[in-house]
C-alpha cells in the first residue's frame, strides 16, 4: 500500500505518491500537480567512481508526446534527441540540487523525470523540479536539503504564482526561484524590462511560497524518508596539502595566480605541477590526488586574498569592469555583425534575416509554442580557452548560454507587423575568460542594430561573483568575474537588461543559498555595470539601429488581403502564385488570416509582385486605368489580361478614335497596353477602352 500526501499550492492540488512505483530506485515519487503527472526518481551508485575529481551528477527530463495526446513527428514516430526545452529544464533542475550534495561525494547519481501527463494549468517543468527535490530528500543519498521551487508571473502588475500556460502568454515576467529553508539558491528569469525593485519583490515573494512547500516535504521525509547512507570521502589528504604548502608557501601561490593574463597563470601552475610530479613520482596515492590538491590550494589562496584583502587576481577593484571594446561590420556580406570584447572574453555575433516561413518549428509539450522567429545560437570551440578537443555539436552548456542570450533580447525584438522577418543570431566565442553568455548578449544586440533590426531598446549584460566567509555578513561581491573567480568563487549571477529594467537573470551558486543583502547588492551592481556598458561602449559604437536592412539582406514587404481571396492569389494547383514568382523573382508566403509576405533582394521585383497581387484581389473600378497584356484577339475586339485571373475586352470600336478595319491594325497578342475600364456588368464582364485611356 502506497502513501499519499497532498497540499494546496497556488490554488491547485499538489499530490505526492510514495512507494507506488519505481521502488528499486533510491528514491521515487509519482507527483501530481492538477492533471500534470511526473515520475521523479533518484538513483546512486553503490561505489564511488575511480579517477575523477568531481561529483558525477546527471539530470534527465524526458518529454513524452503521449503526455499531450500526440504521436511524435518524423519517420520513426518515437521520441529521440532531447528538445531544447528539455535540455534547459535539466539545467534548471541541476542548479539548485548540485550545491546540496557533499562536495567530496564521488558516487554517480542520476535524477530522472518522466513527464507522463500535461495539464495546461500546471507546468510539467515545475512539477519535475519539485518531484526531484522530494525523491532525493526521501532517499538514502547524502543530501543537505530539502529545497523547493516556485515560478512567478506578472500580469497587469500583479504577481501570479505558478502561472498556467495562458497566463504565461500574457505575463511580463517568467521567474523561477529555488530556496532552502533559509536562503535563495537559484534564480532564473525572463522579463519585459521589469524594474529592479519589482524583480526583488518577486524573488522574495517566491521564497516565502517555497517555505510552505519545504514544510510539506519535511512531512513526507518524516514519514517516508530513509536514513542517509555513509560514503567514502574524497577530500584532499591533509598531509598532502601541508607538503605542497611547505614546497610552495602561499606567497608563491599568490605570485603564480595573481596576474591579468590567463595563459601566464596557467603556465605558472603547470610549472608547479611538473615539479611536484617529479617529487611524488614514487608516491602513487599522492600523485593521483595532485591535480585536486593544487586546485584546492589555488582556490584557498584566491578566496583569502579577495575576502580579506579585497585583492583580485588581475588587480582590479571589486566593482571594476575589465577593459571593453566594441566593433560592428567586421564580417563582409553577412546581414549584420559585431564583436564585443571584455578582457580576455571575446564574442563575434552574426545576424541573418529571412522570411517568416523560415522561422523554427517547435515540437514539444507546450501547445502554445509552435514556432520561434527569433533564434539565438551560441558556440564554444575549444581553441577559445587554449585547449584541443574534437567538436561534437552543441552540448547542454552551449544550448543554455544561447537560450540565456535569446531570453535577454527577446523582449526588445520588434513584432512581425513592424519587422516581418525571421531572425537568427549566432555568437562565436573567439576567446573565453568568464561570462561569455553576457558578452554574447552585448555582441548580439549590436549585431541586430547593425543589421537594421529596429529593436525597442539596446540590451547589455554582466555577471557578478561572490566570495563568502564563515558568517552571513562576511562576503565580497565582485563585478564582472573572470574565469578564475568563477571557478573558485561561490556565485555566477548574470543579469541582462535595458536602462529601463531587467530582461533576463541566471544565477548559479556553489553554496547553500544567498541572503537578501547579497541578492540586493548583486542586482544593484549589475545595473550599474549594465548602464555603463551601454553608454560608454555599445552606444558609442552604434548609437541606434540602422534605418534600413543590410544591402545583402532580403527585403520584405507585407500586405493584408481578404482571406477569401487567398485562393485567387494561389490559383489552380499554384499556377497563379508560381507565375508571379517566376516573373518577379520574389518569395511569397501567405497566412490563413490573409497576411501576405513578399520577400526578395530586388525592390523593384517586390513592388511588381505587390502590384500584381493588388490587381488580383482589388475590385476593378469603373473609370480607372490599368496596364495589361493582350492575350487573345477576335474579329470584334481584343482581350486584355488585367491580372492573372481577370480579363477585359476592348471592342473594336474602342481601339481608336478613327474607324478600325482590323483589330491587328492596332494591337497584337503580347502587346502591353494602357486601358480604361468603361463598365463591369453584374456577371463580372469587364468592358475596356484603349482610345479613352488617356482621358
From TrEMBL:
<dbReference type="GO" id="GO:0004654">
    <property type="term" value="F:polyribonucleotide nucleotidyltransferase activity"/>
</dbReference>
<feature type="binding site">
    <location>
        <position position="486"/>
    </location>
    <ligand>
        <name>Mg(2+)</name>
    </ligand>
</feature>
<keyword id="KW-0963">Cytoplasm</keyword>
<dbReference type="GO" id="GO:0005829">
    <property type="term" value="C:cytosol"/>
</dbReference>
<keyword id="KW-0479">Metal-binding</keyword>
<comment type="function">
    <text>Involved in mRNA degradation. Catalyzes the phosphorolysis of single-stranded polyribonucleotides processively in the 3'- to 5'-direction.</text>
</comment>
<dbReference type="Pfam" id="PF03725">
    <property type="entry name" value="RNase_PH_C"/>
</dbReference>
<dbReference type="InterPro" id="IPR012340">
    <property type="entry name" value="NA-bd_OB-fold"/>
</dbReference>
<dbReference type="GO" id="GO:0000287">
    <property type="term" value="F:magnesium ion binding"/>
</dbReference>
<dbReference type="InterPro" id="IPR003029">
    <property type="entry name" value="S1_domain"/>
</dbReference>
<dbReference type="Pfam" id="PF00013">
    <property type="entry name" value="KH_1"/>
</dbReference>
<keyword id="KW-0460">Magnesium</keyword>
<dbReference type="InterPro" id="IPR020568">
    <property type="entry name" value="Ribosomal_Su5_D2-typ_SF"/>
</dbReference>
<dbReference type="InterPro" id="IPR015848">
    <property type="entry name" value="PNPase_PH_RNA-bd_bac/org-type"/>
</dbReference>
<dbReference type="Pfam" id="PF01138">
    <property type="entry name" value="RNase_PH"/>
</dbReference>
<dbReference type="GO" id="GO:0006396">
    <property type="term" value="P:RNA processing"/>
</dbReference>
<feature type="binding site">
    <location>
        <position position="492"/>
    </location>
    <ligand>
        <name>Mg(2+)</name>
    </ligand>
</feature>
<comment type="similarity">
    <text>Belongs to the polyribonucleotide nucleotidyltransferase family.</text>
</comment>
<dbReference type="InterPro" id="IPR027408">
    <property type="entry name" value="PNPase/RNase_PH_dom_sf"/>
</dbReference>
<dbReference type="Pfam" id="PF00575">
    <property type="entry name" value="S1"/>
</dbReference>
<dbReference type="GO" id="GO:0003723">
    <property type="term" value="F:RNA binding"/>
</dbReference>
<dbReference type="InterPro" id="IPR004087">
    <property type="entry name" value="KH_dom"/>
</dbReference>
<dbReference type="InterPro" id="IPR004088">
    <property type="entry name" value="KH_dom_type_1"/>
</dbReference>
<dbReference type="InterPro" id="IPR012162">
    <property type="entry name" value="PNPase"/>
</dbReference>
<dbReference type="InterPro" id="IPR036345">
    <property type="entry name" value="ExoRNase_PH_dom2_sf"/>
</dbReference>
<dbReference type="InterPro" id="IPR036612">
    <property type="entry name" value="KH_dom_type_1_sf"/>
</dbReference>
<dbReference type="Pfam" id="PF03726">
    <property type="entry name" value="PNPase"/>
</dbReference>
<keyword id="KW-0694">RNA-binding</keyword>
<feature type="domain" description="S1 motif">
    <location>
        <begin position="623"/>
        <end position="691"/>
    </location>
</feature>
<dbReference type="GO" id="GO:0000175">
    <property type="term" value="F:3'-5'-RNA exonuclease activity"/>
</dbReference>
<dbReference type="GO" id="GO:0006402">
    <property type="term" value="P:mRNA catabolic process"/>
</dbReference>
<keyword id="KW-0548">Nucleotidyltransferase</keyword>
<dbReference type="InterPro" id="IPR015847">
    <property type="entry name" value="ExoRNase_PH_dom2"/>
</dbReference>
<keyword id="KW-0808">Transferase</keyword>
<dbReference type="InterPro" id="IPR001247">
    <property type="entry name" value="ExoRNase_PH_dom1"/>
</dbReference>
<protein>
    <recommendedName>
        <fullName>Polyribonucleotide nucleotidyltransferase</fullName>
        <ecNumber>2.7.7.8</ecNumber>
    </recommendedName>
</protein>
Amino acid at each position: 500500500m502506497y502513501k499519499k500526501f497532498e497540499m494546496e499550492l497556488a490554488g491547485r492540488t499538489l499530490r505526492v505518491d510514495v512507494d507506488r512505483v519505481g521502488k528499486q530506485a533510491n528514491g521515487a515519487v509519482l507527483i501530481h500537480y492538477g492533471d500534470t503527472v511526473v515520475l521523479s526518481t533518484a538513483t546512486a551508485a553503490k561505489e564511488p567512481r575511480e579517477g575523477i575529481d568531481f561529483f558525477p551528477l546527471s539530470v534527465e527530463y524526458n518529454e513524452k508526446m503521449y503526455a499531450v495526446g500526440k504521436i511524435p513527428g518524423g519517420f520513426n514516430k518515437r521520441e529521440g534527441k532531447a528538445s531544447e526545452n528539455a535540455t534547459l529544464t535539466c539545467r534548471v533542475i541541476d542548479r539548485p540540487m548540485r550545491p546540496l550534495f557533499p562536495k567530496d561525494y564521488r558516487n554517480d547519481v542520476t535524477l530522472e523525470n518522466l513527464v507522463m501527463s500535461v495539464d495546461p494549468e500546471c507546468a510539467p517543468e515545475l512539477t519535475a523540479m519539485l518531484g526531484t527535490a522530494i525523491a532525493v530528500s526521501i532517499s538514502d543519498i547524502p543530501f543537505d536539503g530539502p529545497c523547493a521551487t516556485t515560478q512567478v508571473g506578472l500580469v497587469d502588475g500583479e504577481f501570479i504564482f505558478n502561472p498556467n500556460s495562458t497566463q504565461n502568454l500574457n505575463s511580463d515576467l517568467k521567474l523561477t526561484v529555488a530556496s532552502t529553508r533559509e536562503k535563495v539558491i537559484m534564480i532564473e528569469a525572463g522579463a519585459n524590462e521589469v524594474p529592479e525593485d519589482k524583480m526583488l519583490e518577486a524573488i522574495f515573494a517566491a521564497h516565502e511560497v517555497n517555505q510552505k512547500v519545504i514544510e510539506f516535504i519535511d512531512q513526507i521525509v518524516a514519514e517516508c524518508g530513509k536514513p542517509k547512507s555513509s560514503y567514502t570521502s574524497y577530500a584532499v589528504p591533509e598531509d598532502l596539502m601541508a607538503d605542497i604548502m611547505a614546497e610552495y608557501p602561499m606567497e608563491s601561490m599568490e605570485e603564480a595566480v595573481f596576474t591579468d593574463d590567463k595563459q601566464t597563470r596557467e603556465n605558472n601552475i603547470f610549472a608547479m605541477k611538473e615539479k611536484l610530479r617529479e617529487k611524488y613520482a614514487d608516491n602513487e596515492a599522492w600523485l593521483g590526488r595532485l591535480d585536486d590538491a593544487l586546485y584546492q590550494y589555488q582556490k584557498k589562496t584566491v578566496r583569502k586574498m579577495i575576502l580579506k584583502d579585497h585583492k583580485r587576481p588581475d588587480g582590479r577593484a571589486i566593482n571594476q569592469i575589465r577593459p571593453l571594446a566594441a566593433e560592428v561590420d567586421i564580417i563582409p556580406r553577412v546581414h549584420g555583425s559585431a564583436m564585443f570584447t571584455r578582457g580576455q572574453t571575446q564574442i563575434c555575433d552574426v545576424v541573418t534575416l529571412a522570411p517568416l516561413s523560415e522561422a523554427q518549428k517547435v515540437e514539444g509539450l507546450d501547445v502554445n509554442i509552435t514556432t520561434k522567429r527569433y533564434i539565438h545560437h551560441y558556440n564554444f570551440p575549444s581553441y577559445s580557452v587554449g585547449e584541443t578537443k574534437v567538436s561534437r555539436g552543441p552540448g547542454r552548456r552551449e544550448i543554455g548560454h544561447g537560450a540565456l542570450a535569446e531570453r535577454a533580447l527577446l523582449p526588445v525584438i520588434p513584432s512581425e507587423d513592424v519587422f516581418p522577418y525571421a531572425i537568427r543570431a549566432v555568437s562565436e566565442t573567439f576567446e573565453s575568460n568568464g561570462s561569455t553568455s553576457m558578452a554574447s548578449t552585448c555582441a548580439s544586440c549590436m549585431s541586430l542594430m547593425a543589421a537594421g533590426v529596429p529593436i525597442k531598446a539596446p540590451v547589455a549584460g554582466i555577471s557578478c561573483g561572490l566570495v563568502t566567509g564563515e558568517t552571513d555578513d562576511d562576503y565580497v561581491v565582485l563585478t564582472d568575474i573572470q574565469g578564475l573567480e568563477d571557478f573558485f568563487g561561490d556565485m555566477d549571477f548574470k543579469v541582462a537588461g535595458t536602462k529601463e529594467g531587467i530582461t533576463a537573470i541566471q544565477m548559479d551558486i556553489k553554496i547553500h543559498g544567498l541572503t537578501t543583502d547579497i541578492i540586493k547588492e548583486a542586482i544593484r551592481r549589475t545595473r550599474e555595470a549594465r548602464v555603463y556598458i551601454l553608454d560608454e561602449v555599445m552606444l558609442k559604437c552604434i548609437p541606434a539601429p540602422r534605418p534600413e536592412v543590410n544591402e545583402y539582406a532580403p527585403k520584405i514587404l507585407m500586405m493584408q488581403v481578404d482571406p477569401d481571396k487567398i485562393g485567387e492569389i494561389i490559383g489552380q494547383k499554384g499556377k497563379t502564385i508560381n507565375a508571379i514568382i517566376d516573373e518577379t523573382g520574389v518569395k511569397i508566403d501567405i497566412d490563413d488570416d490573409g497576411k501576405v509576405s513578399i520577400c526578395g533582394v530586388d525592390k523593384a521585383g517586390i513592388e511588381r509582385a505587390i502590384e500584381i497581387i493588388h490587381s488580383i484581389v482589388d475590385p476593378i473600378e469603373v473609370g480607372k486605368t490599368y496596364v495589361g497584356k493582350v492575350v487573345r484577339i477576335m474579329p470584334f475586339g481584343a482581350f486584355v489580361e488585367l491580372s492573372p485571373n481577370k480579363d477585359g475586352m476592348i471592342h473594336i470600336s474602342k481601339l481608336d478614335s478613327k474607324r478600325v478595319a482590323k483589330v491587328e491594325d492596332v494591337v497584337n497578342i503580347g502587346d502591353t497596353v494602357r486601358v480604361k475600364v468603361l463598365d463591369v456588368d453584374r456577371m463580372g464582364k469587364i468592358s475596356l477602352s484603349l482610345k479613352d485611356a488617356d482621358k
